Amino acid sequence: SQQGEEDPQALSIQEGENATMNCSYKTSINNLQWYRQNSGRGLVHLILIRSNEREKHSGRLRVTLDTSKKSSSLLITASRAADTASYFCATDGYNQGGKLIFGQGTELSVKP
Amino acid sequence: DAGVTQSPTHLIKTRGQHVTLRCSPISGHKSVSWYQQVLGQGPQFIFQYYEKEERGRGNFPDRFSARQFPNYSSELNVNALLLGDSALYLCASSLGGAGGVQETQYFGPGTRLLVL
After folding, report:
1. Do A31 and B110 touch (CB under 8 A)?
2. How confident is the model at residue A27 (pLDDT cuts 50, 70, 90)?
3. Looking at chain A from residue 36 to 65, which residues have their Cβ under 8 Å from any Cβ of chain B?
4. Is the dihedral of CA B3, B7, B11, B16 positive or negative?
5. Which residues of chain B are under the pLDDT cut of 70?
6. Which terminus of chain A is more exposed, N or C, with fewer CB under 10 A?
């Protein structure tokens, strides 16, 4: 079963705009990871945020984590057409030993 | 450095047949995990192996099995294929320490299996 719920399921924006995707999960976690997937191919790791962290940055990406609300958000600033992809959050649950549980993903379309 | 590699990239089988998918982890990584991703869904965990031992198993029937070799590569076997097994099968590798916790998992390009 899916642990996470991503919101929105689909997002369409213009190049240069910011894109925000949200993820909610159900159980306690060790960490939460965000991945990108282009056209049904392999997953590219974007960022890992630990349960004791609240915010993390990597280039144009900013991830926040609120463990009290069991939610995370991924912000992509100044989006580009190349950012068009599906984005997934994945939780590494407490006592799950590294098994990742994925949400259903957000499909992002960035129009030039 | 080479990333995670998987073979074959595509495969077509008929119902009832069996299939073997292969994965080579990143050099130095000792843990391999397998995931199934059906169209429109997020990946679902199937197995995790570390140092040739099964560390975790997801909610998949016994038709699914896997093993890890001394060089840390891995095979996923699926017997008595069903139409519903059609999916992208993803392999992920990680260092494998600390019980797998707090580790980034790096994914391969996947094997797309179509069962007719």
Report:
1. no
2. confident
3. 40-45, 48, 50
4. negative
5. 1, 97-102
6. N
